[in-house]
Write a structure and sequence with these properties.
The protein is globular. The strands form two sheets. The protein has a two-stranded antiparallel sheet with strand order 1-3. It has a two-stranded parallel ribbon with strand order 2-4. The protein has 24 helices and four strands. It has helices at residues 2-16, 19-35, 57-80, 83-89, 93-98, 103-136, 144-171, 178-197, 202-216, 249-253, 256-272, 289-310, 314-327, 332-347, 350-363, 366-369, 375-378, 382-386, 392-410, 412-420, 424-448, 452-467, 480-486, 488-509; strands at residues 43-47, 51-53, 225-230, 238-240. The chain is mainly α.
Length: 510
């Protein structure tokens, strides 16, 4: 036990001394403030049948718990999904592998540290909610128990599960990188529906509040909203005094599935964790027949063609090399999938093309273009690029153009259809969407130095925009007519140019 505690203390110090931890605590305080909008705000978070409780301790505690259960799984997972990665990056993994500490002790310490970090975030949010209650002044009586018990009953089991899932993702090789980030995002989307519809836990609380408001105000009819509901107009929300409820066995019973998920993920992490063994290093394995044929015949032929085509200008030569660097290491099955998606784009209906298959084709490329902005670091060519004769602007434009070409190739079926059908507005929207996506990837990679930010942010925009057709984040233009009328393409085009200029400027100064 003493060994576990020493590991926890050392790991906690290492992870909380990073500047990002302090920034995260400040960001969570701001998020808490956004969770509880002012009466004249253009958005609402928790509205039951057109009503919300006054900002007293009971309402703030239950509202904070509900919103934390919905949104913290996304934020906290990516925050603590670096427990094992930090040891790999700091080159202490070999030292750990050489020590007598066993896998169970090591993983348990990592999991406990992640839980402590997440609990500290919730504590900061609780303290912020007290300040919010005093600031709005709708009730000055602070009830610490009413504030705290929903966090213990609903939020804490979720934090235990998130920490375990993050450790499991880091232990499984194919979930360790960008693919794991994208997979978890869609797991989170599915969990939201399950959480709201559950017969215990948060789902039961929403039903209880709905029934109570309907009983107290039977003549009033309004919408029930949990989450963030944005409106162009300021709508007056009716308020009522809610005295809260006490935790019951049913509420505790609702935490059981999360505890089982936590235990199961820790068991899987123990099975798959290699304890930084030398066998986990990549080995040169013989290529499959299909890979060998593609590399020796098809790729060589295409490369010879591109060499002939691009050899006359410095920019085109650099563009060809950047494109090869982006596509390096990807399986033949990835290229086959890209060809299949292009074929599907040619034959399906336009509604399905815009709302499903074109977005899927771009999501297929997320892990490729997320490398932008830190390709030099990833390929260990930072010094070579710094002392090369090419200007930073030329290098940046070549990287940007290579990723732009890739998304253009992924959309080639749509381009042919739009051109053949004289759908010029859709073609312009496609060009703007490609420019915005590549600019966002380049910006995120340059300013964070990692692929993670884009791999998290882009699927969120992708889901809310093209899939859910939310007008002001629909950079694809699923509802083309409404999109142009609202000026959304102009907004995203200006954003793309702004992000690209910021990125090029940052590259020049480094």
């Amino acid at each position: 036990m003493n060994q576990v505690w020493q590991c926890i203390v050392a790991d906690f110090k290492q992870r909380t001394r990073q500047q990002s931890f302090v920034v995260t605590l400040l960001a969570m305080s701001v998020l808490t403030l956004l969770f509880f909008p002012s009466p004249d705000a253009h958005y609402q978070t928790l509205v039951i049948n057109g009503y919300r409780g006054i900002y007293n301790s009971a309402w703030l505690g239950i509202c904070l718990a509900m919103l934390n259960v919905l949104f913290l799984p996304l934020i906290c997972f990516y925050l603590v999904k670096n427990a094992l990665e930090l040891d790999r990056k700091s080159m202490t993994c070999e030292l750990i592998a050489a020590t007598p500490i066993n896998k169970l002790t090591f993983l348990l310490a990592k999991w406990c540290t992640s839980v402590f970090i997440l609990v500290s975030i919730v504590l900061v949010m609780l303290l912020s909610s007290i300040g919010i209650q005093l600031y709005y002044g709708e009730s000055h009586q602070i009830d610490l128990w009413a504030l705290a018990w929903p966090q213990f009953v609903f939020v804490l089991p979720m934090l235990l599960a998130i920490a375990a899932i993050a450790i499991m993702f880091e232990s499984i090789k194919w979930l360790r990188g960008g693919l794991g980030n994208v997979v978890y995002f869609f797991l989170w989307i599915g969990s939201i529906v399950q959480t709201i519809e559950s017969v215990s836990g948060i789902g039961a609380l929403v039903d209880h509040l709905d029934a109570e408001v309907a009983e107290r105000f039977p003549l009033q009819q309004g919408n029930t909203n949990i989450g963030i509901n944005i409106s162009d107009e300021t709508r007056e929300i009716n308020t009522f005094v809610w005295q809260g409820i006490e935790p019951t066995i049913m509420h505790l019973w609702g935490a059981l599935p999360l505890l089982l998920i936590c235990l199961g993920c820790l068991v899987l992490a123990f099975i798959f964790f290699d304890r930084f063994s030398a066998h986990s290093l990549s080995e040169n394995k013989p290529d499959l027949w299909m890979n060998f044929t593609l590399k020796t015949k098809v790729v060589s032929l295409l490369d010879s063609f591109f060499v002939t085509l691009t050899q006359h200008f410095a920019f085109t030569r650099l563009l060809r090399l950047e494109l090869k660097l982006i596509l390096k290491g990807h399986s033949v099955y990835w290229f086959i999938g890209l060809l299949v998606l292009n074929g599907i784009q040619l034959f399906i209906s336009q509604d399905l093309l815009l709302s499903i298959f074109l977005p899927i084709s771009w999501l297929w490329c997320v892990l490729v273009i997320s490398q932008l902005g830190q390709l030099e670091k990833q390929s260990n060519t930072v010094e070579l690029m710094t002392y090369s004769k090419q200007s930073p602007i030329l290098q940046s434009l070549a990287s940007y153009s290579a990723a732009w070409m890739l998304l253009g190739l992924a959309s080639m079926g749509s381009v042919l259809r739009f051109t053949g059908g004289a759908e010029w507005l859709l073609l312009v929207q496609l060009i703007i969407a490609i420019s915005f996506t590549v600019s966002l990837a380049y910006f995120c990679g340059t300013f964070t130095g990692t692929k993670r930010m884009f791999e998290v942010l882009y699927p969120a925009l992708w889901y809310m925009g093209p899939i859910q057709a939310a007008l002001y984040v629909d950079f694809f233009g699923v509802n083309s007519q409404a999109s142009w009328q609202a000026g959304v393409p102009y907004l995203f085009f200006a954003t793309a140019i702004g992000l690209l200029m910021l990125t090029v400027s940052a590259k020049r100064t480094r």
